[in-house]
Amino acid sequence: MTRLDAAGLLPAITFVFSRNGCDAAVHQCLLSGLRLTDEAERAEIAEIIDRRTGSLPEEDLHVLGFWEWREGLLAGLAAHHAGLVPAFKETVEECFVRGLVKAVFATETLALGINMPARSVVLERLTKWNGEAHVDVTPGSTPS
Predict the structure, then answer these.
(1) Residue 144 counted as domain residue
(2) Residue 36 and residue 59: Cα distance in Å, rounded?
(3) Which residues contact 99 (CB under 8 A, 6 or more apart)?
């Protein structure tokens, strides 16, 4: 059990209002050495990854950032946004629902039609781009 988990904060979703920001958050956590999974969880995550992505052509894996994405998942960390191929998004969702991925950095599209059992939800900031300007996040505009 991690210290964060002991505090009752995991699993958690952090809403980051950009795809690049989601990916960068996972990368930064990995660079800092953060690992939220034990050996048994990593083995289960690896099995899910293999099952869900095994049909992807080997030559596509590099282009898709597969190895970096896989490293994050094995550490219990993931990004979730519209820029991920469906196999990656579905893998993240399955791992999170099973309690294997402890922290997801997601754009607000995650809140649309996906029920993921988070104990904590964090907003990266209280402003977001609405397509025309940066505006305050309001209760009616926050991901739910």
Answers:
(1) no
(2) 30
(3) 11
Q: Specify if 16 maps to a domain.
A: yes
Cα separations in angstroms, 33 against 5, 36, 75, 124? 17, 10, 9, 21
CA dist 21 and 41 (Å) reads: 26
Q: Element (H or E) spanning 105, and its range? A: strand 103-106
Count of other CB atoms within 10 angstroms of residue 140: 6
- Whose tokens are 């029920």? That residue is 115
Under DSSP, is residue 123 helix (H, G, I), strand (E, B) or coil? Answer: strand
26-49 pLDDT per residue, tens: 999 999 999 999 999 999 999 999
- State which residues form the domain around 86: 3-136
pLDDT tens digits, 84-115: 999 999 999 999 989 999 999 988 766 544 56
How many separate domains does the chain show? 1
The predicted model scores a pTM of 0.78
